[in-house]
Write a structure and sequence with these properties.
Elements: E1 9-12, H1 16-27, E2 32-36, E3 49-50, H2 52-60, H3 64-69, E4 75-77, E5 79-82, E6 85-88, E7 98-100, H4 104-117, E8 122-124, E9 127-133, E10 138-144, E11 147-153, E12 155-158, H5 165-169, E13 174-177, E14 183-189, E15 196-202, E16 205-211, E17 216-223, H6 237-248, E18 256-263, E19 267-270, E20 274-275, E21 278-280, E22 286-287, H7 295-315, H8 322-349, H9 355-364, H10 368-379, E23 404-405, E24 421-425, H11 430-436, E25 443-447, E26 449-450, E27 461-464, E28 470-474, H12 481-489
Parallel strand pairs: 1-2, 1-12, 2-8, 12-21, 24-25
Antiparallel strand pairs: 3-7, 4-7, 5-6, 9-10, 10-11, 13-19, 14-17, 14-18, 15-16, 16-17, 19-22, 20-21, 23-26, 24-27, 27-28
The structure holds flavin-adenine dinucleotide (FAD).
Length: 500
């Protein structure tokens, strides 16, 4: 590392997104400083679970087991919803189930432990107040209890949430719609109410309640004719309890509030995810109604897409243009996220005028193709990155965790825990293995075969990126493996070439 740098990459914000970025960079051995303005981790429960794709991401780094090691049991389910209309993720037979009722604090704790085990502790009490891209470096001006310090790195990733200072100071455009409503939220102990997991439509608005562990219920309430909010003022528990009583007739005022908050339906997206040496991820890049619980999930997946690419660029294996694929791939996901959550918001929070539409969408979900379409959107399993000209249905999608014969690991995801590339050779083809050998320092090769047909056309081999997406397949793309290896993994190590 250049002696004038304090680190290779500064990550601003140790929420789920920043932790994921830092973890992925550390998996590749990159030097990282992870800053957070908070002196202690937040205790706000916020995001309450994982979509099936996030569960897969966690499985690909061996992180699922860490929850039980901390004494946290995961309540897995294939039950989901689209704007309050029940939806079954079980239509993706090859997917991991999602998780519900898991406060975000547990997720952050697991990610923090993982990142710490990889050699990076969160640097707390460090508030970034300015960011300057100098062309060959990026500088962060950091406030530490009133003292200013300048930190210098090759890249900086803004994972500093919806009010991102990085986004503002680095000049990112952030456009969309402002909030038109206010949804009140409280985590309450001892209020003794019946669950309304995916919400209940009532004459004056919508009420939702769900147990989130430790005897606490999450209460969410939106009155149709209530005020909109910029959420600058924290609501009182009394205002939540009053709104709940007006809608449901139930008295929860005797409950003990653990956390009270409010959110709206502002919907905004950064027009670029990269400006030179500064990148954005998570809520810093996209804000929306937390319909379907997608914010944290999308942020973690942004980080999963970015980390290995940034590591390859910092290592000098690939040019900075690789980072444009981060924008290309994840900005498209962000756009679709905004579309999806706006549609869900209309269905979920709309009044009686939406009732016919809800009924019709409920009927349509009965058709498998519709169900697959909507479940793909909400679960993250529909995400297909552009990979070139091939037409195999798996190309660009995430590799499913199929069972394998011939490996100790038994299925695909445990083969990805080292965050390297993976060539799965299903037909014991020596010429393929020879072709990949010069990249042996960054790609694992496994010869195995699927235990069962998994519903795709003939597949002789598959190249999987470190984020689990399929970058190349044989026989469809035969002849282009070397091009795919160069594109995603850089130039090979000459010393590893056959015969050398
Ligand atoms: C009420 C509510 C319910 C939600 N429910 C769900 C759900 O069910 N499922 C779901 O997926 N998502 C949900 N979300 C959204 C989810 O909480 C966010 O999308 C998620 O926290 C985003 O993660 P992040 O790491 O991008 O940002 P954040 O979690 O906001 O983390 C940003 C971090 O940056 C730090 N920071 C900020 N500014 C600076 C600075 N200048 N310098 C240094 N550090 C800084 C902060 O202290 C913080 O630790 C919900 C959100 C809310 C508000």
């Amino acid at each position: 590392m250049d002696a004038s740098f304090d680190t290779e990459v500064i990550v601003v914000g140790a929420g789920p997104t920043g932790l994921m970025v830092a973890g992925e960079l550390r998996c590749a051995g990159i030097d990282v400083i992870l800053l957070d303005e908070l002196l202690e981790p937040t205790t706000e429960s916020r995001g309450l679970g994982f979509t099936p794709r996030t569960m897969e991401v966690l499985a690909q780094r061996g992180l699922v087991e860490r929850f039980s090691e901390r004494g946290v049991s995961l309540q897995t389910t294939t039950r989901g919803h689209f704007g309050g209309i029940p939806l079954d993720f079980g239509v993706f037979a090859d997917a991991h189930p999602g998780v519900v009722g898991l406060p975000q604090v547990h997720t952050e704790a697991v990610l923090r432990d993982w990142v710490a085990d990889l050699g990076c502790e969160v640097t707390r009490g460090h508030r970034v107040i300015d960011v300057t891209d100098t062309g060959n470096a990026v500088e962060a001006l950091v406030d530490i209890s009133g003292r200013s310090v300048r930190l210098r790195a090759r890249f900086l990733v803004g994972c500093d949430g919806s009010r991102s200072v990085v986004r503002k100071r680095a000049g990112f455009e952030f456009t969309g719609t402002t909030s038109t409503l206010e949804v009140l939220l409280a985590d309450v102990r001892g209020c003794d109410i019946r669950p309304r997991f995916i919400g209940e439509w009532l004459p004056g608005g919508v009420a939702m309640s769900a147990a989130i562990g430790d005897g606490i219920d999450r209460i969410v309430v939106c009155e149709r004719d209530g005020p909109s909010s910029d959420h600058a003022v924290q609501p009182s528990f009394k205002s939540v309890a009053d709104a709940w009583q007006r809608l449901t007739g139930e008295d929860i005022s005797h409950g003990e509030p653990q956390w009270v908050s409010a959110f709206g339906d502002a919907t905004k997206l950064a027009s670029d995810y990269r400006r030179g040496r500064v990148l954005l991820a998570g809520d810093a890049a996209h804000v929306h109604l937390p319909a379907g619980g997608l914010g944290m999930n999308t942020g973690m997946q942004d980080g999963f897409n970015l980390g290995w690419k940034l590591a390859a660029v910092v290592r000098g294996r690939l040019p900075e243009t690789l980072l444009d694929s981060y924008h290309e791939e994840r900005h498209a996901v962000g756009k679709r996220l905004l579309l999806n959550t706006r549609a869900q918001g209309l269905l979920f929070l709309g009044g009686d005028e939406m009732a016919p539409l809800r009924t019709i969408i409920g009927e349509l979900i009965g058709y498998e193709a519709v169900s697959v379409h909507l479940a793909g959107m909400v679960s993250g399993l529909e995400i297909r990155y552009p990979m070139g000209t091939g037409s195999h249905p798996l190309l660009g999608l995430r590799m499913p965790d199929i069972q394998l014969a011939g490996t100790q690991e038994q299925s695909v995801y445990p083969l990805l825990t080292s965050a390297r590339g993976l060539l799965l050779d299903f037909v014991d083809d020596e010429s393929l293995r020879d072709e990949v050998r010069p990249w042996a320092d960054r790609i694992d090769v496994v010869t195995a075969s699927p235990v069962a047909d998994f519903g795709v056309p003939r597949l002789d081999a598959v190249l999987v990126r470190p984020d689990g997406h399929v970058a190349w397949v044989a026989p469809d793309e035969m002849g282009s493996l070397t091009a795919a290896l160069h594109r995603w993994f850089g130039d090979p190590d000459e010393a590893l070439k056959v015969g050398k």
